[in-house]
Amino acid sequence: MDGQNSKSTTIDDKMSCQPLSHHNTRNLLDSVDAFLFDCDGVIWKGDALIDGVPETLEKLRSMGKKLIFVTNNSTKSRKQYAKKFLSLGISVSEDEIFSSSFAAAMYLKVNQFPKEKKVYVIGEEGIGEELELAGFTSLGGPEDGKKTVHLKPNYLFEHDKNVGAVVVGLDQYINFYKLQYGTLCIRENPGCLFIATNRDAVGHLTDQQEWPGAGCMVAAICGTTQKEPIVVGKPSTFLMDFLLQKFNIPTSRMCMVGDRLDTDILFGQNAGCTTLLVLSGVTNMSDLQDSSNLIRPEYFTNQVSDIIRLL
Amino acid sequence: MDGQNSKSTTIDDKMSCQPLSHHNTRNLLDSVDAFLFDCDGVIWKGDALIDGVPETLEKLRSMGKKLIFVTNNSTKSRKQYAKKFLSLGISVSEDEIFSSSFAAAMYLKVNQFPKEKKVYVIGEEGIGEELELAGFTSLGGPEDGKKTVHLKPNYLFEHDKNVGAVVVGLDQYINFYKLQYGTLCIRENPGCLFIATNRDAVGHLTDQQEWPGAGCMVAAICGTTQKEPIVVGKPSTFLMDFLLQKFNIPTSRMCMVGDRLDTDILFGQNAGCTTLLVLSGVTNMSDLQDSSNLIRPEYFTNQVSDIIRLL
After folding, report:
1. Could you confirm whether B40 is annotated as catalytic?
2. What ipTM, to 2 d.p.?
3. B157 near A CB under 8 A
4. Is B9 on the interface with A (CB under 8 A)?
5. CATH of segment(s) B107-231
6. What's the N-to-C CA distance of chain B in angstroms?
7. Residue of A nearest to B145 (CA)
8. Can you identify the CATH homologous superfamily of domain A112-231?
9. What are B220-260's pLDDT values in tens digits?
10. Contact B172 A174 (CB under 8 A)
């Protein structure tokens, strides 16, 4: 995190954090070829679309801007996300979606994880689906959600010695069985990787309140294994490096739009993107202005539709 | 932990770590009025008594030594531990047992936790029993072990606003419901305490292997709340301060006997006790001699019965 801290301090020093206005929106659009959008709190909140999003995306596309959707939520695959977009009346191709479930699969692919090894999943459907699409064999996940442990003398909990990576993401069905399985793989299988989709403490799983995020399950495995994970979602730079290889656009010509300072905005800043905070999600004006907050976006505004409204 | 680190460094500097021998065992017995024993890995392993323990305890009692049993395992109450001792053929009174479940209840009592407030438990039977014996009202624990969450739009997870403390210990029945309940209390109830019985990463829940310890569940709650707990079990000094008030023996006349360097031995050292590591539990000779290990007991030996055998 040292690099991140020094980076955010530098940015904090040199940048004023400006509200989006008629004047600077034009500058923003002129200086940027691609918009990276976080989803929850930016495009939708729970199952409800945020006002004015479809028109804004359409307008940006008509201006020739590339749109990329980057989400730390690992519970869905890219295919499932494309369906969710469609159900909300927005047409987005799978290729435009970068979820942390996909990032986990891509991390293994980029690092030539052997196809004969297996991946144990603490998480929901999205991770297993993406692993399978990338050609990997996974176990655990939803299948282990109802498994229980009955401790008795001489009981030995067996685990697959061919597991070479444990991927941990948000898991509503977390249980002692999965915690023991993942821990045994990491502690006992030589060289077994410990990959976290992300470390968000909480997330808006419902509109009404926040719920434990992947950071909860990841911390639990850190607690038993006393090891730190490789994080592939925001704010780690893995996903950005991957995006850079895929699209031919320099990060200086990208704008990261998000509702979280410590993941979205930090992610954008770490990569050298322009950053725009929207106040339609978890961060409010007083969080942004709080003296303890060192992460300052270049721009902030109420919601994404302001980009078009202010033009 | 600063104090603990500086203390262990001092001890490390001035002490050689001696194997127990005929000569120094006599010195040890002469210099000590009370023995504090860890249980798992010292007295028993899972459900099996370790060789020679009953005779050793009997002999020490006949020499006028006070015996105190200190365990970080919070799943049982003191009453349940006394039963376990009896089932293994050892007669121990409840007053001689100090479990981290009891420590949690005593922490609240010593700090005058209001009786009209409630305690939410992530843990097993022992914690609720000790809280009740101390006059507190608890909820959660085993009762919430089968509860599930069904996320749907507009769903609001309700929690009791009268919860003033969340106690987290080892919980084989950990689930998303409990994680959300505990998190909401800590994040939303003003002044709500976050108490950890202990932070052991793993423990020998069965003879055959290690399982996630309280450190797993505690870390999960740290992950969502982004807060650090008050730890009442070993190696925190709360339990020792409590013991000191109860027994009229200076810590310099006590010997802590345990199988874990980072809890038992550190706990003894933090308090100024003589320390004896037994190799009948989780620590082996190479762990002790590893250059990365900074925690060195004054004495070490294979098992507690050596104390009498070497005399």
Report:
1. yes
2. 0.90
3. yes
4. no
5. 3.40.50.1000
6. 37
7. A175
8. HAD superfamily/HAD-like (3.40.50.1000)
9. 999 999 999 999 999 998 988 888 888 889 999 999 999 99
10. no
